[in-house]
Write a sequence for this structure.
């Protein structure tokens, strides 16, 4: 072990001990529904999807914003809203046992920030911190659950997994929520508020996120459309046929089209315009996808935007047989015309959706012309 690693290990142990002395240990795990101080409201959508809203007076939350989030009342860990994501042997993520939550063993090793107001937690764990897809479907719909609850206690602040991506603040601007009310969870790992609000995960049902993402609730789709598509977004100047250009990602070690030049040349010759989504702000991505008629692209989080497409929009997704079928399911729910072209991965060391591929240009051309 290097000197740097030794020092880091010693520092971490000292930090844990210091904050345990400062804030104390977690006494026990409590069940929210059995605790008289915790308010729980059942929230129903279409008599199919139901969720819980939790309100913890003077509640505390500690989170690493990725794997573990602990909701606490006094010095007790509240089971239901807390989560501790863990990888199974097949690399699938599940919500593990509450006794394995980070704070049970290590306490809360960060300075406590007290918020003078009500805070709604939109912490989601997993890839919700930096992935566009998970932001759209794991984070934002939690606001829809709160709205549906009709509770009198309203949030003054919103605790988010991160604010490092420009689309994160932009999406709240579209919701007419002030930037001054947004709390960056990466910079505020431990906080207490007058009332701490949390809701169940909007799409992760029965602790099976892998299956759940292929069955997005219809209310989530309807809520996203209602909140973000504006009447004045119809624009005849927006191209009707686009392909998602990942050329700026050509130096990445994972997921790219090897023959990208030939791919682009074909699509350009057929009247498609290349679009780099990272160059567009959140509002303009929605404008684009709500106007186009035909979209082609490599499997990626940007396809989350098809939720904003008009019915019968044509979608061609290109991926490997390990890239999953979440976009196929979403397209079906949105009543879009969808096809997937499956190509072999060219580097077997890259797994799942990260494999590089070579697109069969002739096959792609035939599918486009007959779609």
């Amino acid at each position: 072990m290097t000197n740097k690693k030794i020092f880091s290990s010693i520092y971490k142990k000292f930090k844990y001990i210091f904050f345990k002395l400062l804030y104390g240990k977690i006494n026990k795990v409590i069940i929210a529904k059995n605790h008289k101080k915790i308010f729980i409201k059942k929230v129903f959508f279409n008599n199919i999807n139901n969720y819980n809203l939790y309100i913890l007076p003077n509640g505390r939350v500690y989170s690493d914003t990725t794997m573990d989030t602990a909701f606490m009342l006094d010095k007790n860990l509240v089971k239901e809203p807390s989560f501790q994501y863990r990888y199974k042997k097949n690399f699938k993520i599940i919500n593990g046992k509450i006794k394995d939550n980070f704070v049970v063993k290590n306490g809360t090793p960060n300075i406590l920030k007290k918020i003078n107001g009500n805070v709604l937690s939109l912490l989601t764990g997993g890839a919700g911190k930096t992935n566009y897809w998970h932001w759209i479907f794991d984070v934002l719909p939690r606001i829809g659950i709160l709205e549906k609850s009709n509770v009198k206690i309203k949030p003054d602040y919103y605790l988010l997994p991160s604010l490092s991506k420009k689309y994160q603040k932009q999406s709240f601007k579209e919701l007419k929520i002030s930037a001054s009310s947004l709390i960056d969870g990466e910079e505020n790992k431990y906080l207490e508020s007058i009332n701490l609000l949390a809701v169940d995960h909007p799409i992760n049902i029965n602790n099976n996120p892998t299956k759940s993402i292929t069955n997005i609730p219809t209310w989530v789709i309807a809520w996203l459309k209602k909140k973000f598509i504006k009447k004045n977004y119809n624009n005849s100047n927006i191209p009707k046929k686009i392909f998602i250009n990942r050329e700026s990602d050509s130096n990445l070690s994972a997921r790219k089209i090897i023959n990208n030049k030939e791919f682009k040349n074909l699509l350009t010759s057929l009247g498609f315009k290349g679009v780099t989504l990272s160059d567009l702000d959140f509002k303009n991505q929605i404008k684009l996808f709500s106007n186009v008629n035909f979209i082609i692209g490599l499997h990626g989080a940007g396809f989350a935007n098809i939720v904003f497409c008009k019915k019968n929009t044509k979608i061609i997704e290109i991926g490997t047989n390990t890239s999953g079928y979440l976009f196929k399911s979403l397209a079906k729910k949105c009543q879009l015309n969808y096809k997937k072209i499956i190509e072999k991965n060219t580097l077997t060391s890259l797994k799942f959706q990260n494999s590089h591929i070579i697109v069969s240009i002739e096959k792609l051309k035939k599918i486009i012309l007959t779609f």
